[in-house]
Amino acid sequence: MDATYDAVVVGSGPNGLSAAIVLQKHGLKVLLIEGKETIGGGMRTMELTLPGFHHDVCSAIHPMAGAGPFFKTLPLAEYGLEYIHPKILAGHPLPDGRVASLHRSLSGTADQLGSDSKAYIDLLKPLVDHWDALSSDFLAPLKIPNNPIKLGLFGINALQPATLLARKFKETSTRALWAGMAAHGIQPLTNVTTSAIAMVLMAAGHHSGWPMIKGGSQTLADSLTNYFVALGGTIEKGKMIADFSQIPDAKLVMFDVSPKNLLNIAGDKFSKLYRWQLNRYRYGMGVFKMDFALSQPIPWKSTALNGAGTVHLGGTIEDISKSEKLTWEGKYSQNPFVLLAQQSLFDKTRSPEGSHTAWAYCHVPSGSEVDMSAAIENQIEKYAPGFKETIIGKHTFNTKEIENYNPNYIGGDINAGVQDWSQLFTRPALRISPYRTSFKNIYICSASTPPGGGVHGMGGYYAAKRAIKDLF
């Protein structure tokens, strides 16, 4: 029987959409299947608190969307995408009142770091200057690098634990800013390779900013969708795939799903070895997320934070390192590291006139159902006295609810698997190609493949390129 489609992509997160676009552009007839009634995976925006308040459900700030190699090649602005760039990319207040900030300008950031100015420039400038060349290597599967010398110099620092590389810095504020960046990795700061996370996020900011999407993250999903459809692609929504038999005939099938879900859907088609490998895949800490409807902007003690798209709360590097370690061990911190975004300061479409939104989460043990609302609110209140009085509505997600919302977030892990040294390039399994499964023409393209979490679409891009090469 002739295949109805050349390719079927299951899942419409950034990687599924990217894979579908690459395949469709190559001339294949592609069907994209999404389990929910809206496209987007982690790129969705909803009225979670009160009518008229538009909250990003998962992804909110998009450093890698702006700096990644693939999205910039697509005409997404023609399909509704508009980036908004806050003046300050990220602010990090300390208990003593000081604030360290990440700015678009490398020198502008370094100038506020006192005695650490030269060390900061020495660390980040080579990566910023050669971003386009190097990002094609570290935002990719393990391969012979295009720029081995430059990548090697980056790797010497990137492979170190964030707590070790922090010794380059003497100022408490610099070390805190560094720790907040590294904590995006959702693992202890003493883990090997956590410096890579901080370096990439900071360099991406200096190269392309930390943009938010006008109207919400859903707009990025919609622009990718609109472009895919304009290319001739087909979409089927509201069809949650639970078994491979539900998928139409196709020459190849690509899954934007976690290894656990891939096993549930198609495990009986795989070799014993590949099933064993997927079963060994490790998921990390989860998140507890809050969205707030506010009567006014957050009343920060430091007015410097009023211009920050993202705010990192958690204190010094010692405080953040302790909090992340406790969570990794299955415990809870009453001084959690909190990531907060305040999009409505820069995007008036997010809330009714005169009111505002806030988006925040902290890390918690995998599968946790503990309510961390008080801990998050107290952490914000510490740096913004009177914050609690501005709350007129709120919504929470524990890890179980996050996984129910998106089955790829196992145990609430929004990175779709621990991104440590043993799973950085071998995710989800050690194979010649991480995107190939053991069954011919079935591929995996989710954030559980290289280069891992983040809204950049590179997993889908490389998986589709691999499939095209195999098919032709």
TrEMBL record:
<dbReference type="Pfam" id="PF13450">
    <property type="entry name" value="NAD_binding_8"/>
</dbReference>
<protein>
    <submittedName>
        <fullName>FAD-dependent oxidoreductase</fullName>
    </submittedName>
</protein>
<dbReference type="InterPro" id="IPR036188">
    <property type="entry name" value="FAD/NAD-bd_sf"/>
</dbReference>
